[in-house]
Design goal:
The complex is a heterodimer of chains A (464) and B (524). With 464 residues, chain A is of the alpha/beta class. Chain A contains 15 helices and 14 strands. In chain B, strand 4, helix 6 and strand 5 form a beta-alpha-beta unit. Classes of the chains: A alpha/beta (464), B alpha/beta (524). Chain B: Pathway: Protein modification; protein neddylation.
């Protein structure tokens, strides 16, 4: 297609990109070439090719983005078809990422979408570094947490504990449940047990209690060693009938197969319209950030409360200290609210992290002990990672075995003999009398090591 | 096949249930104009399994459509847009009956109004003011629901129009449970009395459900306060202290729950003002032509004034709480029993009223009456002004307030500018800013029109920001895909609420503000 044709095709979008305006970003440079530049230089990663991902790919492609990649480890299921509109019944079983990419490229000529049929943890940090914008269409807190910490691990801080602009990666995120959609504040940490153990074991009252009993307790008792697979209908049927029996015993009603699936799989009700709204909002923000064609929410990307959002490409100049959350609520109609949050300095994921000063001889296992005794952290049984690399994993057994050999090694060596570095520790801490899993960011500084980089302003101690 | 359908719709059935789905599948929806806004609206409905759709659009696909409409492609250029969008939608869900009419909506509105009578609901996109007013009249006449949606550059709006919409299953996000702790009935009191709070067994002590704790505590309190429950702040605090005094251990979850729920004992008697408004509505004066909803409300009114003793029928369910299984199950049974008794009384009244107004006493099923009783406290009645009314006599003070409120000013400004661009188009046969060469003049013209509108309405001309006027011209009536998708998403969500009669549809005009995302619902 020649240039004239492209101009015709994008005539509506060009009204925003080629025309000057008064309510635009201060760095906006309207021109007929802006769309070309957007297409050529901006690389966007869409994480997730489900309800949000499908909408995002369409919206981004029709917003002038030309370099898209999409990553999703799932295959298409029948229950996806009420909203994941890029898939058809004959696609069931195929990779979501691959089918979605193909379908959008078929309909929007000129866009290039590279699919990745794998887990997000399977890609190393360098893969994510390559993008200017990362747009999230994820349905699990763990996945979001992971991406969150990946993006945060890029962050380098200057002497005043402010993030260095060049290292900030913009993230656009959406989440939906039923009629509710929002870009949520993601608190790092794993989702704790839904119900107290004693309720499940001793005093069940609801159908859900009976189901979780069968799922979490009875299964292991009867099927020693065999892992429960929520996608195996026979397993699910077993859970259902056990739950039903237990319910009958206690005089509890309401156990159905549908509820069983819902509870065990943590099914989130989902519809097309909500996904469409949230994705469109995200795509629009991405367009505005990338081109400056309008005001963005205080000049940077929407979302994810504790995540610092900024722009790695050339367009943004300002440093970020605040972010907004887009909220779309249902019952009384539609209400879009913009809430401003001030960055939480003590945020455990995107804040500078807890300072840990260590001798270079301290071993990994000694560090782990230290974390349990640390007055502020009191982390028990922590797993330690550095930039996504597993230094020591408490579980699952396979990983524990693989990383056990790191325990007696000096942390200094494991961290590449650098004078300082960031590691993440996931363990159990006591919160309000309950043991919950949490993620902590640790800023390790090794004593007595000459630091050729910036001045060690954050060091409380004095080099030996 | 049925199993597969159930699987496909599983995620949405968990929201609106089989009845909601059935209502969707019976619906016949008409879409006017299938540009991006209309197409995206319809896409969400087709995916959800709406019964049938008819697309009305007389235009041909041009190259510019390829840049913002996902449902057309290179092959369709020069062909009927309605046909191609229809084909695409049909592929999304073959259970939906998709048709198209290659006509301009304007033609049908002006010359064939009876066309619209066949539909459950009409979605009108990208229509200008004068056509909207006419369409609205037609839909009101034919009793067809109307949802208006439009996108324009970085702005857009959605507006519902129908005479009256009644919702029984409003399914609010947060709604207080119906425990009647402020007004316990004899069976509940009896059950609580039979339980000894001071039981020796510590396990039983900390598994006595908070409902029982509060009924006993409230009775003890009333005994010491002339039969009254705690009302003042001081009293409420003392009441909590009383509850705490029953604890034998600081770790007793059930007592903590009781303290947290203590405020329920102080609730005011009777129905909410919201419900009172509904039962006092003149529509309660039913006759043979009254919709079933009002017959049910009439019965509710009688119930409240008689068996209810000022209260509506008991909802019947109780939330989960720390408790021995046996106590909990028994409490559930007590609440269910009263709910059933209330429902029986309601049923009797419903049948009597039906007979009185000359209708078949069995016309409303027991299941429907039961559903109504469960949702009695959450009923909603929404009445919408006609579009003509809204345009000819907008609520000036409201508009003025919106225009000067920092959070709402852009949205309110766009509301006025939508009126202005339509008037511009009526005068100049095109929208402002469509051509680069006319930009400066168009800004001046649009400004003049906007000021005129504001003055007509009785608002200050200065209230509208100059920059917004320029921005509206900059948009040049462009349809931006992301904006269309957003507006389409909102519109489709409202359509679903209207058709399923669940959840509460918006009242007023929803203005999308893509500049700073401060979208608003304007009640005008």
């Amino acid at each position: 297609m020649g240039d004239a044709s492209a101009e015709e095709r994008w005539r509506d979008l060009d009204k925003l990109l080629a025309r000057p305006g008064n309510i635009v970003s201060p760095i906006f440079e309207p021109s007929p070439q802006l769309r070309d530049e957007l297409g050529e230089y901006v690389r966007v990663l869409v994480v997730g090719a489900g309800g949000l991902g499908c909408e995002l790919l369409k919206d981004l492609a029709l917003s002038g983005f030309k370099n898209l990649e999409v990553i999703d480890m799932d295959t298409i299921e029948v229950s996806n078809l009420n909203r994941q509109f890029l898939f058809r019944i004959h696609d069931v079983g195929k990779s979501k990422a691959e089918v979605a990419a193909r379908r959008v490229m078929e309909r929007v000529s000129g866009v290039n979408i590279v699919p990745h049929f794998c887990r997000i943890e399977d890609k190393d940090i360098e893969f994510y570094r390559d993008f200017n914008i990362i747009a999230l269409g994820l349905d699990s807190i763990e996945a979001r947490s992971y991406i969150n910490s990946v993006a945060c691990s890029f962050l380098e801080y200057d002497d005043d504990d402010n993030p260095c602009e060049e290292t900030i990666k913009p993230l656009v995120d959406g989440g939906t449940e039923g009629f509710k959609g929002h870009a949520r504040v993601i608190m790092p940490g794993v989702t704790p047990l839904k119900f107290p153990l004693c309720t499940l074991a001793e005093t069940p009252r609801t159908a859900a209690h009976c189901i979780e009993y069968a799922h979490l307790i009875k299964w292991d008792e009867v099927h020693r060693g065999k892992t429960f697979d929520a996608d195996n209908p026979e397993h699910m049927q077993w859970i259902y009938s056990e739950a039903f029996k237990r319910a009958e015993l206690f005089g509890i009603t309401g156990v159905t197969y549908s509820l069983t699936q819902g509870v065990v799989k943590n099914i989130i009700p989902a519809i097309a319209s909500t996904n469409a709204i949230v994705s469109a909002a995200c795509a629009l923000e991405a367009l505005k950030i990338a081109t400056g064609c309008s005001k963005t929410l205080s000049n940077y990307l929407t979302l994810l409360g504790c995540l610092i959002i900024g722009l790695a490409c050339d367009f943004l100049r300002e440093s970020l200290t605040r972010y907004h959350i887009l909220q779309v609520q249902r019952s009384r109609g539609l209400h879009t609210k913009v809430t401003e949050f001030v960055r939480d300095q003590s945020c455990l994921v995107c804040g500078p992290g807890t300072l840990i000063e260590l001798d270079i001889l301290v071993t990994l296992s000694e560090l782990i002990e230290l974390l349990g005794e640390h007055p502020k952290l009191q982390l028990s049984k922590p797993s330690i990672t550095q930039q996504g690399k597993n230094l020591y994993m408490q579980a699952p057994p396979v990983l524990e075995e693989l990383t056990r050999s790191n325990l007696p090694l000096p942390l200094f060596d494991l961290m590449g003999r650098a004078p300082r570095g960031i590691i993440h520790a996931t363990g159990f801490a006591n919160k309000n009398g309950k043991r919950t899993s949490c993620l902590r960011k640790l800023r390790v500084v090794f004593k007595g090591v000459v630091d050729e980089g910036a001045a060690n302003v954050d060091m409380a101690g004095v080099p030996a | 096949m049925a199993g597969e359908t159930k699987n496909k719709y599983d995620r949405q059935l968990r929201i609106w249930g089989d009845q909601g789905q059935a209502a969707l599948e019976k619906a016949n929806v008409c879409l006017l104009n299938c540009g991006p806004t209309g197409s995206e609206t319809l896409k969400n409905l087709v995916l959800g399994g709406v019964g049938s759709v008819t697309i009305v659009d007389g235009s041909k696909v041009d190259i510019g459509d390829l840049g913002n409409n996902f449902m057309v492609n290179k092959q369709s250029v020069g062909e009927s847009k309605a046909k191609f969008v229809c084909n695409f939608l049909q592929e999304l869900n073959d259970a939906v009956g998709a048709k198209f009419v290659e006509e301009s909506p304007e033609m049908l509105i002006e010359t064939r109004p009876s066309f619209f009578a066949q539909f459950t609901l009409v979605i009108a996109t990208q229509l200008v003011e004068n056509l909207l007013v006419k369409l609205d009249k037609i839909c009101r006449q034919e009793n067809v629901m109307l949802v208006v949606a439009r996108s324009y550059g970085l702005t857009g709006f959605v507006r519902i129009s129908l005479k009256e919409h009644n919702v029984i299953e409003s399914k609010p996000d947060h709604f207080l449970d119906d425990l009647r702790l402020h007004n316990p009935w004899p069976e509940l009191k009896q059950f609580a009395k039979a339980i000894d709070l001071k039981v020796a067994d510590p396990v039983v002590h900390k598994h006595t459900p908070y409902i029982v704790i509060l009924v006993i505590a409230a009775e003890e309190w009333a005994g010491m306060h002339g039969g009254c429950f705690p009302t003042t702040r001081e009293e409420k605090k003392e009441f909590k202290d009383l509850i705490k005094s029953y604890m034998i251990d600081l770790d007793e979850e059930n007592y903590k729950e009781a303290v947290e729920a203590a405020f329920k004992v102080s609730a005011s008697l009777g129905i909410s003002s919201h419900l009172r408004q509904i039962v006092n509505d003149s529509s309660c004066d039913v006759d043979s032509s009254s919709p079933d909803f009002w017959v049910l409300v009439a019965a509710l009114k009688e119930f409240v004034e008689n068996e209810g003793g000022g209260e509506p029928p008991l909802e019947g369910s109780i939330p989960d709480m720390t408790s021995l299984t046996e106590y909990y199950i028994n409490l559930q049974k007590i609440y269910q029993a009263k709910a059933e008794a209330d429902c029986l009384a309601m049923e009797h009244r419903v049948r009597t009223i039906l007979k009185r107004i000359g209708r078949d006493p069995d016309a409303i099923s027991k299941a429907d009456i039961k559903n109504f009783c469960k949702n009695a406290r959450k009923l909603y009645v929404i009445r919408y002004r006609t579009i003509e009314d809204e345009f000819s006599s907008p609520v000036a003070p409201e508009l003025q307030k919106y225009l000067t409120d920092e959070d709402i000013s852009f949205a309110a400004g766009f509301y006025v500018l939508f009126r202005a661009v339509d008037r511009f188009a009526a005068n100049y046969n095109r929208f402002p800013g469509v051509f680069d060469s006319d930009m400066d003049e168009d800004v001046a013209r649009l400004k003049a029109i906007a000021i005129a509108i504001l003055t007509e309405v009785g608002c200050h001309a200065s209230a509208l920001q100059e920059d917004l006027i320029t921005e509206m011209c900059r948009f040049g009536a462009a349809e931006i895909h992301a904006v269309a998708a957003y507006v389409g998403g909102v519109a489709s969500q409202e359509v679903i609420k209207l058709i399923t009669r669940q959840f509460v549809p918006m009242s007023g005009t929803f203005i999308f503000n893509g500049i700073d995302n401060k979208s608003q619902l304007l009640a005008l």
